[in-house]
Amino acid sequence: MINSEIFDPQEINKAHERIRPYIHQTPVLTSQAIDKIAGCSIHFKCENFQKIGAFKMRGASNAILQLDKTKISAGVVTHSSGNHAQAVAKAAQLIGIPAYIVMPENAPKVKIAAVKDYGGIVSFCEATLVARETTSQKIIEDKTATFIHPYDNKDIIIGQATAAKELIEEVPQLESILCPVGGGGLLAGTILSAQFFSNNCKIYGTEPKGADDAYQSFKQRKLIPQISPNTIADGLLTSLGKINYEIIKDQVSDILLVNDREIKEAMRLIWERMKTIIEPSSAVPLAALLRNKALFKDQKVGIILSGGNVDLKKILSLL
Amino acid sequence: MINSEIFDPQEINKAHERIRPYIHQTPVLTSQAIDKIAGCSIHFKCENFQKIGAFKMRGASNAILQLDKTKISAGVVTHSSGNHAQAVAKAAQLIGIPAYIVMPENAPKVKIAAVKDYGGIVSFCEATLVARETTSQKIIEDKTATFIHPYDNKDIIIGQATAAKELIEEVPQLESILCPVGGGGLLAGTILSAQFFSNNCKIYGTEPKGADDAYQSFKQRKLIPQISPNTIADGLLTSLGKINYEIIKDQVSDILLVNDREIKEAMRLIWERMKTIIEPSSAVPLAALLRNKALFKDQKVGIILSGGNVDLKKILSLL
Fold first, then answer.
1. pLDDT of residue B128
2. pLDDT grade, residue A13 (50/70/90)?
3. What is the helix, strand, coil percentage profile of chain B, to 5?
4. What residues are paired with B16 via a beta bridge?
5. Least CB-CB distance to A312: which of B29, B272, B278?
6. Under DSSP, is residue B171 helix (H, G, I), strand (E, B) or coil?
7. Alpha-carbon distances of B318 from A209, A278, A312, B230, B241, rounded to whole Å
8. Same CATH fold, A57-147 and A9-54+156-316?
9. Can you name the residues that pair with A207 across neighbouring β-strands?
10. Cβ distance A319 to A271 under 8 Å?
11. Which of residues 39-98 of B touch A (CB under 8 A)?
12. Which residues of chain A lie closer than 8 angstroms to B275, CB-CB?
């Protein structure tokens, strides 16, 4: 059980009210065609329609809004080339404070442009973790800005928990929810919401074989960092966070692995049958469900489609 | 004004209740990024998430459910290679009656497969209107099945009207709604719902320049058939129907034209910013709005995204 001094349902309720003006309540979609293939009834929570195109907007806005008044006006810092960078920039823009985003100099131009478009102040550094951290530290000192970690952060986890909370409130009696696991913020948050708001709904983490540190950590009962990840699911390359691991290790029903071919097939199915654009990481839960049909047979299942930020030309060449 | 003996709000209300078990109440999405570009507040009614991927499911199920008991069990017939064929097949499948679909022998394989997947019984004919009609007529006689016209049919129009009805009920005080016009079923239905359920919401038809028969008919005050259409918006090639024209000619605020380049740009914007897959025909209203920004400045606008059935690989080459 999670230590109730650390997390309680009221915190998630309060976070939800706090961030509501800054996020979309995303729709839940269903597809009879996919249900037929899967042999169960799936409810897709479409965080690809969230602001900035991913659930990360929930955690980033909660973490920023939690800052005390003396700190918040100096702004926030993060290092990321992914959805978290866009989320911090956008949330800071809506709240009216500066966001300093440290990005590797080889980051895709489209991602740099997106961060700038949301008002982020971009600093470039070498493409190493040390360079990212050094550059971030310098900004923290120069600007007295606050660092917002992408996932290993209690306020981020609580923010991400609101996605599953909305899904559980909209679809009663879900028996299982599947979500992808990278750093673990979404999975940890989903576990908390299921514990507090559902009727014994089971939670499954789903992960690419080419970046299986959460699976290894869960099975070996110790936190194992991700080394040299290699998968099409580019949002799930990072190592599981410590706080996240503590929540996940005793609460997740299982972590299911899939390969890149299965991810591509599930992604294509969602694009074609549901008319909705998801990034490869978002296809991992459906791929895992289709690989383990017997486990979910005839169940009422929730899947969190985590995001939809893709380079269309690049991704279509994979289909 | 429309003759109230032909249409009244109760008919649309009844149709809505009748078809509700057979359709999705589709979500309404918004995009701050697109609003910023457009200079107004747009509410997108996502009929691309409708069953069979298009609004046609509404009209087809209403037309079939309206048939009397002695007729319905013999089944229904239509000739189409587009979304109407899929809608008739799917609605008939759900209701449990046969659907005979006449398709040109050169129809895309993916469309033939979709109709068969929904249980449609496909007959092939030469790719001419005469061949389609002769083949359909033979089935009508052999099977005593009922022909379901794709748009020039009162029950179809009333069914399509339920899309705008849901949009108007969900988003109060819309000032304008834009929708594409091909045969005119969606536009005529939208006009009826605006008249009966909105507070003076204006309705605009939007049409590709390469298939501008509705525009020509509206401006010249007489029904002018479409000859040799040429546009990327392959759902809008057909001629405006007679019943539809009678509703549209005095009730539509205007019909706005766009070229294929504008359609492609609007389609790309919706794919990238809204993470939702639409077919080219569905991009026509946003293209028309962006071409006529002054007309909609600061307004609360509705756009009906009519469908999302595209060949992903083919569409990629257009982006």
1. 87
2. very high
3. 50, 15, 30
4. none
5. B272
6. coil
7. 34, 20, 11, 16, 30
8. yes
9. A257
10. yes
11. 48-49, 51, 53
12. 48-49, 53, 276-278, 308
Residue B124 contacts residue B117 (beta carbons within 8 Å): no
User: In which order are the strands placed within the sheet that holds A99-104?
Assistant: A121-125, A99-104, A76-79, A146-147
Catalytic residue among B61, B81, B193, B239: B81
Q: What pTM was computed for the model?
A: 0.90
Q: Is A100 helix (H, G, I), strand (E, B) or coil?
A: strand
How far apart, in whole angstroms, are the C-alpha atoms of residue A314 and residue A55? 22
The CATH architecture one would assign to domain B9-54+153-316 is 3-Layer(aba) Sandwich (3.40)
B275, B312, B314, B318: which to substitute to probe chain A, counting the most A Cβ within 10 Å? Answer: B275
Instruction: State which residue of chain A sits closest to B274, comparing Cα positions.
Output: A49
Mean pLDDT of B267-275: 93
Question: Hey, is the C-beta of A118 within 8 angstroms of any chain B C-beta?
Answer: no
Mean pLDDT, to the nearest integer, of A215-222?
A: 97
Domain-wise residue ranges, chain B: 9-54+153-316, 57-147
Question: Per the CB < 8 Å rule, is A27 touching B32?
Answer: no
pLDDT value at A102 more than 70: yes
User: What mean pLDDT do residues B4-28 have?
Assistant: 92
CA B319, CA B268: separation in Å to the nearest integer?
A: 7
**Rounded Cα–Cα distance for residues B153 and B185 (Å):** 8
Token pair in block for residue B302: 């509705």
Q: What is the CATH number of domain A9-54+156-316?
A: 3.40.50.1100
Under 8 Å between Cβ of B100 and B75: yes
Mutate to test the interface with B, among A30, A36, A275 (most CBs of B within 10 A): A275
pLDDT in tens, A275-305: 999 999 999 999 999 999 999 999 999 999 9
Distance between CA atoms of residues B61 and B91, nearest Å: 5
Confidence category of residue B318, pLDDT binned at 50, 70, 90: low
Placement of tokens 């009966």 in the chain: B196
Write the pLDDT tens digit of every residue in A221-276.
999 999 999 999 999 999 999 999 999 999 999 999 999 999 999 999 999 999 99
This model of the complex carries an ipTM of 0.85
The pLDDT of residue A129:
84
Name the strand (E) or helix (H) holding A204: strand A202-208
| Interchain CB distance below 8 Å, B276 and A272 | no
Name the CATH code of domain A57-147 (choices 3.40.50.300, 3.40.50.1100, 2.40.110.10, 3.10.20.90): 3.40.50.1100
Look at residue A319 in the predicted model and tell me its pLDDT: 62
- Under the banding of pLDDT at 50, 70 and 90, the label for residue A128 is confident
Structure tokens at A239: 């190592």
Q: In this complex, which of B24, B271, B276 lies closest to A312 when CB atoms are compared?
A: B271
Smallest Cα distance from B296 to chain A, Å: 24
